[in-house]
Specification:
It is built from seven helices and twelve strands. It is of the alpha+beta class. A hairpin with a 6-residue loop joins strand 11 and strand 12. The longest helix is centred in the N-terminal third of the chain and has 22 residues. The C terminus is likely disordered.
C-alpha cells in the first residue's frame, strides 16, 4: 500500500526579527512516488548567511529526495542527504568567504512504506501526535539539553535557560562530519497520526500541550495557521516555521497504539501489542 498523507507548512518573520532565516519544503521520493520527504531548517541567528544556510540545506534535502528511491536503505538515504547538504554549504562558503561561519539546523522526516525515518541536527524539533498525546522525538543539540541529559536541569527549566540557544551540533561548511541524529528504527504511523516539525520559534513560547490541543481540534492547514498564530500571540521573539503532516493510508503495522512514556522521545508498544 502506498504511503499517503496530507500536509502543509508555513513560516512567519515573528515580532522581533528583521529577516526570516527559517526555511522548509517537501518533495516526493524517486521511483514510484510511494514516499514523501519533509524538511525544516533554521539558520543560525547572529551569524552571517543564516538565511543562505537554511535555504541551501532545504534545497539540497529536496534534491536528495530524487536520489532516494523508496526501496533503498533509509539510513543510507539520510546519511547521503546530510552529507550533500553539508557539501552544498561548503561550496557556497568557498565561493563567498563571508559565509564561512554560517550554519543551520536541519530536521527531516522520510515517510515510506516501512515507516517514518527521522534525521536531525540542531534545535528544530519533530514531534509525533497520536490520539491527543504528543511525544517529542528529537532531542535538542544545545548546551541546555546536554544539562538535561546530565541530570542538571529539568526539561521545563531548559526551555527558559539562555544556554538553550547555544547549539552543540548543527550543519555548517566544515570538513568535519556533521554527525546528525538518525533514528535507528522508524516511527510506525497509524492512520490519523500527525507529525509536527517546527523551528525553535514555536517551542520557545508554545507548550507541547498547547500544540497537541491544536493538532487534535483542527485539520492540517488550519492547525499550521493556528500554531503560528499562537506563537505570534505569545510574542514571537524569533522566526517561526511549522510543518504538519497527517497519515492517511499507511501499511498495516499489526500493532496496538503506542504508550508514550513521557513527553520526550520515549515510547513503547502497549503490553498487549501483537506482532
Amino acid at each position: 500500500m502506498p504511503v499517503s498523507c496530507r500536509w502543509d507548512g508555513g513560516s512567519h518573520l515573528g515580532r522581533s526579527r528583521h529577516r526570516n532565516e527559517d526555511a522548509w519544503g517537501a518533495a516526493t521520493l524517486a521511483g514510484d512516488g510511494r514516499g514523501l520527504l519533509l524538511a525544516i531548517a533554521d539558520g543560525m541567528g547572529g551569524h552571517p548567511g543564516g538565511d543562505v544556510a537554511s535555504r541551501a540545506a532545504i534545497e539540497s534535502a529536496l534534491d536528495s529526495a530524487g536520489l532516494c528511491p523508496a526501496g533503498d536503505p533509509a539510513l543510507a538515504c539520510l546519511e547521503g542527504l546530510y552529507q550533500r547538504a553539508q557539501d552544498s554549504l561548503r561550496d557556497r562558503a568557498k565561493a563567498r568567504p563571508s559565509l564561512r561561519e554560517m550554519g543551520t539546523t536541519l530536521t527531516v522526516a522520510l515517510l515510506r512504506e516501512d515507516g517514518c525515518w527521522v534525521g536531525h541536527l540542531g534545535d528544530s524539533r519533530l514531534a509525533w501526535w497520536r490520539d491527543g498525546e504528543i511525544c517529542l522525538v528529537t532531542r535538542d543539540h544545545s548546551v541546555a539539553w546536554g544539562l538535561v541529559e546530565a541530570g542538571v536541569l529539568d526539561a521545563e527549566a531548559a526551555e527558559r535557560d539562555p544556554t538553550g540557544a547555544m547549539l552543540t551540533r548543527f550543519l555548517g561548511p566544515t570538513e568535519s562530519p556533521c554527525n546528525p541524529d538518525l533514528l535507528e528504527r522508524p516511527l510506525l504511523l497509524e492512520r490519523g497520526d500527525r507529525l509536527l516539525l517546527a523551528t525553535d520559534g514555536l517551542g520557545k513560547v508554545v507548550s507541547m500541550e498547547r500544540a497537541a490541543a491544536i493538532l487534535r481540534a483542527e485539520e492540517v492547514s488550519r492547525s499550521v495557521r493556528l500554531l503560528i498564530e499562537a506563537t505570534l500571540d505569545a510574542g514571537a521573539p524569533d522566526n517561526v516555521t511549522v510543518v504538519v503532516a497527517e497519515a492517511l493510508d499507511v501499511p498495516a503495522s499489526g500493532r496496538t497504539p503506542l504508550r508514550f512514556e513521557d513527553s520526550r522521545y520515549r515510547w513503547r508498544e502497549s503490553p498487549d501489542a501483537s506482532h
